Amino acid sequence: MPLELPRLPYDRTALQPHLSAETLDLHHGRHHRGYVEAVNARIDGTELAELPLEDIVRQSQGSLFDAAAQAWNHAFYFQCLHPRGGGDPKDRLAELVTRHFGDIRRLREEFDRAALGLFGSGWVWLVQHPTGALAIQATRNAGTPLTGQSRPLLACDVWEHAYYTDYQNERARYLEAFWKLVNWDFVAAQLRD
């Protein structure tokens, strides 16, 4: 069964002024769609065609891995954003952030440092290790925590298509906007029990 491009969980204009409708059209409507179509083209007629996307990511390599991981990463990223997002995490997530980073300000500093220090394209993640500890992880290109032991909680796309229309090459300004959109409820729902 072919994969379908997931719908955005909000209207294409909902993240303005932080991310424009034009950025979402390019990011979701072109790039994300292209990755889904590339996966479908590569798995058609194979045993992978019946698997969920996460399993395809874990079982593939080469160009199929790149397309599948990018399709999954983008779907996850769009869930991490919300028009009424931002602010600070609450409850258990807030406690874990305090335990592992000191406070939300330090989490943001470490996350931004990883995003600004990533040469070229990739992703920055807040992950939870099997021990329960939270950590920041940067991955290049299509890299994803799905291929390791850590559970992804929050993703920030630092490929240029995620921000160039709105911020040109100013990744730091994009990160400021990103924090105003973070869907902490979604992040908290990803935590291990």
How does this model look, in words?
The chain is mainly alpha-helical and about 190 residues long. It folds into 2 domains: about 20-80, Fe,Mn superoxide dismutase (SOD) domain (Helix Hairpins), CATH 1.10.287.990; about 90-190, 3-Layer(bab) Sandwich (minor pseudopilin epsh fold). Helix content is about 50%, strand content about 10%. It contains 8 helices and 3 strands; from the N terminus they run H-H-H-H-H-E-E-E-H-H-H. The chain has a 3-stranded antiparallel beta sheet, with helices on both faces. Helix 1 (about 20-45) runs antiparallel to helix 3 and helix 2 (about 55-60) packs across helix 3. The protein is globular, with a radius of gyration of 16 Å. The protein starts with 20 loop residues before the first helix and ends with a helix.
Q: What is the arithmetic mean of pLDDT? A: 94
Number of domains: 2
Query: Which structural category do the helix and sheet elements fall into?
Result: mainly alpha
> C-alpha Rg, in Å?
16 Å
Largest sheet: 3 strands, antiparallel
CATH architecture of the largest domain: 3-Layer(bab) Sandwich
Number of strands: 3
Tally of alpha and pi helices: 8
